């Protein structure tokens, strides 16, 4: 039979919590805080009012913070498209003014360096909510590294193409920072302005120097005005360096096949890159929901199912959805570019589109591996791809190869290496969440 | 409590109505034996040559955050220069934090444990990896910390594993088998039957993954090296105990635990009031209980700041012979002024659910109805992580149409001035230890109306009004009575002033700690 104390205690607990107590401690704490019962008495009383059955189960909901996602990939993609269009438009006038070989060498150096810096910056700063504030915090060290470690060697040691490469790097990486600030459109206008200037016969070097200066000043302003106050720390230096190495390898993959003819075939390779970049943009944007979709998909999944394989689980669903978007967009846009080849510098060689599509797919896989902190696997796949590409280039050089053959071979090897660890992981969404997304 | 981005993880937990078995565990070295012969001479030489060292572990407080515990740390460390203080703060590493308190010359930071940060432990390239036990680490931790009768020995074994292989912890937790073993262990824990434990709720995969992540950070905290020291001083029976547990096990150093609030009690209160799911509430409170149990077992001495906390600690199974109350104290002015008679009611503290600001708002409305012209001011910022609660309070003020009467004033650099400018000081907390804000009000000779929680009734005996927590009517009646009766208010204020000078001075507080720490460090140095 229930005593008056028991009835009072149960009443206080249910009035305060709207349910029974979870255990003796919760009962005691509630009785002391709101029932005016002293600690010892509350502990003693608490042990008598713990209900034997838990309330019916309702899975929790995710709060807004858990659903938060980063938007760095969107702005970066915009900046990248701008950069590609600029290359495509500048190629003709630049090669006429400064020579094809100088332009080719400059692009061969600048593209990998740009990707390396973009990956590193994204890893340490730009993918974070307060990315620009973090960047501002390290501004002096970053300026020193960029000036002494990249620009000075390019300008001083690699004449005549080094200075041009240095300007390309500054313009393209600066574009990434400006896009992160939300200034993608002004950046695009700057590049279009440069195209008009080149078309009007302005000296290429003078024009690019001016453009570089304007973009660097814009970057400084973007960083100084973009962050506000934040105490979010920047990412790990080691991880940023690894990300930079992956970017470098992917950049190397883009320029490692001489049959592509960067700077030699005018706007041709840059335009061929456009479908796959847009495909990457859409696929990557969809993939960015990964951090949101997986926990949501796992809400309500019971513990005995939490480590089960699930081909239709949230991880595989979003992964396959991203790949389909990437491949679909690339195929459709490639077909469009090929069909209108006569108006796009004769950009109609199928193998090139296949090659760039493979690079885009490899980049997505490697990027996903890196974001899940499987950095070594990502780096291995990217480096192996470059190694195979360079080897194939050497082997095929005497046989008048199909354009982009080495690029395709390297990318396919990279894809084959990157896919198994990813599939193995993504098949178990519970494991992805616990061991990879939330423990980095 | 630490309040990082992905889920606040309060800690501390402990106990049930029947005292839990707190017999010294197998691995804990016994108290140092008396020194004889060579050992005694060596100890004597060492003792003469150097000052006693105390390793103080803090959790989300000193020296990086303001609050009662930080003020207490500052007072004790600054006031006891005869010790060398080694400070090891545990803090959320998902944001940059600067030290708010300047350390005196006899204190130094000996590292910091950053939770939820991107940093990794330094890799030991030339140490041969030893992966034994790696896959069972998360499972062992969940059994020891979440299980109702989790094994202290098993917890120590797991934490020691982490200290010996700090760079292997991440790998251990990222392994597929470790996750599988963890899930099995968690299911075992949920299936436990104990009359005091009630029935465990069902958990889902996301809640399990959250717990897994939290245990990872516990393992990472255990892996942080600690310096040689003569005494471990743990300032909360939660996360702060983790490095001390490992250090004690490795070196046999004595551990002193000072509790300002009762950690497990506050964790349960926070969980009970949070809008989280049953599973999240269950896990956060059980984890707190697991950490507190370990702290109570490992502590050689427990020094609560008020008898009210001591009662909880005894109820939670701490051996009464370990407990010695050392009350807080403040620097009280030599003279006082009478209340200004401006009908102003002031509260100083963080905006936090434990302060029950929403009850205070309702009290303000009620008092304003009874005493036209009464105004309320709340001085203090929201606790980190409680910004949503602060917004809810502001919303409630709007709904109650209390914005004219009640104002949130933000942080103040002059709490004494704020209190001096009031007629009454009000506190509506649902959990307190021995609140400094009440001592400060008494030192300024201001009458206090405060809820009867923790050590408040003990402190305000005869010099304040102490209604039950959450009782809007009683609180409002107390405040209105003092506003309408300035003579009574002044008399209570003067009594408070005298009581602070008699019982709660800085000198008395420091004297208590000087004695206690002196005894404990002498034993440590002799060992």
Mean pLDDT of chain B: 86
The two chains with the largest interface, and their residue counts, are: A-B, 68 and 78 residues
Helix content of chain B: 40-55%
Distance between the termini of chain A: 54 Å
Instruction: Enter the CATH topology name of the largest domain in chain B.
Output: Rossmann fold
Structural class computed from helices and strand pairing of chain A = mainly alpha
* Largest β-sheet summary of chain A: none
What is the helix tally of chain B? 19
CATH class designation of the largest domain in chain B? Alpha Beta
Q: What is Rg of chain B?
A: 24 Å
Query: Strand fraction band of chain B?
Result: 5-15%
Spans of chain A of at least 5 consecutive residues whose pLDDT stays below 50 are: 64-70
Low-confidence stretches of chain B: 1-47
Based on the structure, what is the oligomeric state of the protein chains? Answer: heterodimer
Number of strands of chain A: 0
Provide a descriptive summary of the structure in words.
The complex is a heterodimer of chains A (440) and B (527). Chain A has 19 helices and no strands. By secondary structure, chain A is mostly helical. Chain A folds into three domains: 4-55, no CATH class; 70-235, no CATH class; 261-440, no CATH class. In chain B, 45% of the residues lie in helices and 10% in strands. In chain B, β8 (344-348), α12 (357-370) and β9 form a beta-alpha-beta unit. Chain B is globular, with a radius of gyration of 24 Å. In chain B, α3 runs antiparallel to α4 (152-164), α3 runs parallel beside α6 (176-190) and α9 (263-273) packs antiparallel against α10 (278-298). Chain B has 19 helices and 13 strands. Chain B folds into two domains: 50-123 and 131-322, Rossmann fold (3-Layer(aba) Sandwich); 344-503, Rossmann fold (3-Layer(aba) Sandwich), CATH 3.40.50.2000. Chain B is of the alpha/beta class. At the A-B interface, α2, α3 and α19 of A face α5, α6, α7, α9 and α10 of B.
